[in-house]
Amino acid sequence: MRKNIVAGNWKMNKSFQEAEELISSIADELDEKELKCDVIVCPPSLYLEMASDYADESVLSIAAQNVSDHNNGAYTGEISASMLGSMEIAYCIVGHSERRKFFNETDAQLAKKVDQLLDYNLKPVFCVGEQLEERESNTQFAVVRSQMENGLFHLNNEEFLNVIVAYEPIWAIGTGVVATPDQAQEMHSFIRGLISEKYNSETAEQTTILYGGSCNPTNASTLFANKDVDGGLIGGASLKADDFVKIAMSFE
Prior knowledge:
Blueprint: E1 5-9, H1 16-30, E2 38-42, H2 48-56, E3 60-64, H3 81-86, E4 91-94, H4 97-102, H5 107-119, E5 123-128, H6 132-136, H7 140-151, H8 157-160, E6 164-167, H9 181-198, H10 201-206, E7 209-211, H11 220-224, E8 231-234, H12 241-248
Parallel strand pairs: 1-2, 1-8, 2-3, 3-4, 4-5, 5-6, 6-7
Helix pairs in contact: 1-2, 1-12, 7-9
């Protein structure tokens, strides 16, 4: 049975002190709850070791926000999967729309990043999603199919079972505009169908598919109630402990 997951992507936010206060508050609140999902926190890389210390004493798991497509060498400023693995980081986001847009990451690079992570036993949280003009021109399914095929479908079945997919309609990220529950379910079902088509129905049913895009405590339960929506990759709402915990408690 696939896992329900709520992951908080802090992006480039919080001072060290603020980050420690936030993760401490999240850990304390969650430790008092009866959870129906796994909870992941994705802080800036500078804070991964601190976050891991808190995770060791709580129900939290930790993810990095990015990884290099190289293993090691003269790549100033980069962080490798082997480094993350040596810190016992469990997950890493790959292909977030902001990385694709602002850092020009290509599908070929993202496929390499996925390979690097799997080589060091980290689980990729692989992001896919369409822009507004692609949604308006009804090409969203072709866009997501291409992202899945080029970034993930080189993996064999055993490798793919370690991947989490996150659908993020780019037009809904940080805008306050949310895909309707029907729109979210439609795309999540489509993605699961692609996985079944490429691998098999069992693998598709075991794959966790998250929704990301202005998910908050008010709409989370409605989104998560969909058959193929297994949780969320949360942006802004993950920066407030109470909001993030409420989202994590949104599963029926």
